[in-house]
Amino acid sequence: MAIESDVVVIGGGLAGATAALSAAREGVHVHLVSANESTLRQASGLIDALGYAVGHAAENDGEDAGAGSGDADAVPGPLADPFAVIEDLPADHPYRVAGADALREGLALFDDAVGDLYRGGHTDRNALVPTTSGRAKPTARYPQSVAPGLASDGRPMLLVGFEADTEFDAPLAAERLSAAGVPFDVSGATVEFAGEYRADAAVTRLAHALERDESAASGRGTTAGEGRTTRQRLADRIRPHLGDAERVGIPAMLGDSHVEEVRADLSERLDAEVFEVPTGPPSLPGIRLEDRLFDALDSAGVSMTTGTPVVDFETGADGRVASVTIDRNGARIPYEAGAFVLATGGLVGKGLDSDRERAHEALFGCHVPQPDDRMAWSAGGAFADHAFARFGVRPDDRMRPLDVEGTPEYANLAAAGGVVGGADVAREKSASGVSLATGLVAGRTAAEEA
Amino acid sequence: MSDTHDTHDTHEDCGCDGEANRSAATDGGAVAGSTAGSEDEFEPVDVFEGSEMDLRPGADSCYKCTSCDTSCPVAEVDDSFPGPKFQGPEQWRLKRKEDTEIDDSITGCSNCMRCDGACPSDVPLSQMHNTARAEYVENQQPTLSREYLRNRILANYGTLAALGSKVPRLTNAIMGNSLVQKVNETVLGITAERDFPEFADQTFRGWWKERGGPKVESEEKRVAYFHGDYANYNTVEVAKALVRVYEAFGYEIAVPDQRCSGTPMFANGMLDDARRSAAVNVESLGEMIEQGYDVVASCTSCSMALRQEYPELFDFEGTETVAANTYDALEYLLINENVIDPLSEVDAADHDIPDFAYHAPCHSRNQGLDRQAVELFRYLDGVDVADVGDSCSGISGTYGWKEEKYEYSMEIGEEMFEHMEHANGETGMTECPTCSMQMEHGTGYEIDHPLQVLEAALVDTDVTI
């Protein structure tokens, strides 16, 4: 026997969640299987679509880009409108293969799933969101808690970091933003987090203290009532640095599920709009996004199994994939379905594996085009135009991975997200958009083939 | 020869084992992997050869992303607890320096094991915590200390229960006495805030024997039931529900000899106690598997121990086989039987089955089983099973019984209590006996096991299976 469903989606990141929602919308029963907790927990929570136009490998020998001279020619400015340049992308870029409409519909599916948690759906254009490193990241969607911090807003800004949080140097970030020419005054201050917490307290500890509004006098997190609370004390520490600032950016740790309540309270106390600055992992906006997307999956009737890797698959006599096998501490359990979506990620997510000879797709062994010469995988310079960055399966317009001859590897297997090649998502700032566009199409294909 | 590793140039005449010496001199460090050109994959049990435990392969996989700390329910409320990243990989690095003992904050870990599932790099965090905790108890916790005594008692609940359940009513009366509870707290450090779980009038094994064993015989469908201590002494109705449901599906059930799965022993660093229990269980269950039985457990911490902790920590003959053939009871039914069709024919309203507030235990989450109950009972008409969120219940077995942890335990559980209050159902549901205690303690709800709901829907009705 086996666990049965119409469609099995392998991978619990943004691409897998999108593919599962997309397939479920077509009326089929979907089972989402994820090896670990969703990688959304490590994501910033920003949904980028296409932030920069970067050249194709042929245009760049890599040496210049890696020189770090920082001149305007090497680093093109952020794109205002991702959709305006899709036709200029290489023909094998996922956006060209899936089509601009797939990106548009993928973003619409995302907007529908996350509701009021996110902003940016009113326009095709990118927003510029200040990050902890003091850059303005071009992004298509951003959490509501981040919205007042947009760089297009002219109001004077104060950035606040915490002494214990070495990741965010607020004065330096403010200096960088100023140097980048943002159209507002920005200053930075470092304060001590309110209350007695260990120097390396987990970000969830501080978020918990803000959300519960603990009494800072108590070591055991007693809630408001005795003495001044965490929020009160934090506001008091920020106030002397306020100056003319009308908005205040704090690292994204303003509570977990009640972020809007924390934000409103702090804003009132400071008489300035408080917003979150997205951080690196672990990321509370990423965790909130995960929670919201998984609620949407639950509402769509999607079944989910997390913490069990898919280790094998079986094909039927017709050459289609018949089942995949998960490993649960040595017990091997088959999941049967009519169609499958591969959303296992790229080289970092382990959907692609590599040895000294070849890079290969880790589960089904799908064809991954690559230079025969191992030395040609990478270029000089850490941020250069590396061939490996575009590694991945090459799909048809229904997102089915193609073999070396250009025919689908399996008629009922579609791919989505980082496992799909053709885009340098780190340089383009397009990882989320690629996941949404390919996830949307792969989910539809799987529903049709199921 | 490398100049980094010892004082003589050759090993021809020194009588030492050059290879072993090299490893020791580098403490299992960088050269170890390159010596023999071995490409063998890391096997957890290899590191326990001899008496030294070495978890370097796990430490090296950690790239300090801190996802584990974000998943840790204790680090979220306890300012003295530095989180799983410190307890695992960082502790290991510190330990490489001489004269560094295990940090006593290891006793703050509740062994919920959520860090395992959070790690994107498959670092065996809970395994590292288990070994660090065992080393701490072995070397740094005086066996005459109140803490050791208390933890030993909590960890060996089954031994106490075996005595207490011989005179269940008397034991219940004594343990329910508030003076006894106060003494427990003052003398032993067991919180007086909690009511000691009541013993059933008859143990499950007593009932099974009196019943004459299995009522169904089958050559093909055979399960060996690992009930654990709690379903034997306390929640006997869960064990009986398993028997009735499995027999309804045509299974021959065996109830083999067994001891505690070891979960509370791991959590308290009592690794020797756990090893003794595990040896009995692996042998007994291994024999059943040879006879064609699969092992099922109704407690998700028991199945977790058999499937994950045993192979990580022990290497008895058959440990891997037992792990690979052990299942959660509901999981096994869903893999092997069509539960959905008969369940879809039942209307809960006709059979007084209430709505439920369901909590997934951390140890079911770690096995990827956290969704199975809510997804299954979608097919049961007239019942709303609300998932009360992904927080830890806070009790984590023995953790919430400790006087100094009680408040943290309740603060961790607060989110679950709130979600339970908001859910339609006023009956709780969970697979874990101690989560069940915590749910009842925080809300006053009665708590059922999913097997009891299946029993009510499929056995106590006239539906055809």
From TrEMBL, chain A:
Residues 216-227 have a biased composition (Low complexity). One of its GO terms (molecular function) is glycerol-3-phosphate dehydrogenase (quinone) activity. Keywords: Flavoprotein, FMN, Oxidoreductase. SUPFAM superfamilies: FAD/NAD(P)-binding domain. GO terms for cellular component: glycerol-3-phosphate dehydrogenase (FAD) complex. It holds the Pfam family FAD_binding_2. Residues 213-234 are annotated as: Disordered. InterPro entries: FAD-dep_OxRdtase_2_FAD-bd (IPR003953), FAD-oxidoreductase_2 (IPR050315), FAD/NAD-bd_sf (IPR036188), G3P_DH_GlpB_su (IPR009158). Residues 6-434 form the FAD-dependent oxidoreductase 2 FAD-binding domain. This is Glycerol 3-phosphate dehydrogenase (Quinone) subunit B. It comes from Halobaculum gomorrense.
From TrEMBL, chain B:
Residues 1-42 are annotated as: Disordered. This is Glycerol 3-phosphate dehydrogenase (Quinone) subunit C. It comes from Halobaculum gomorrense. Pfam families: CCG (PF02754), Fer4_8 (PF13183). Residues 1-14 have a biased composition (Basic and acidic residues). PROSITE patterns: 4FE4S_FER_1, 4FE4S_FER_2. InterPro entries: 4Fe4S_Fe-S-bd, 4Fe4S_Fe_S_CS, Cys_rich_dom, G3P_DH_GlpC_su, Helical_ferredxn. Coiled coil: none annotated. GO terms for molecular function: 4 iron, 4 sulfur cluster binding; metal ion binding; oxidoreductase activity. The keyword Mitochondrion does not apply. Keywords: 4Fe-4S, Iron, Iron-sulfur, Metal-binding, Repeat. GO terms for biological process: anaerobic respiration. One of its GO terms (cellular component) is glycerol-3-phosphate dehydrogenase (FAD) complex. Residues 98-131 form the 4Fe-4S ferredoxin-type domain.
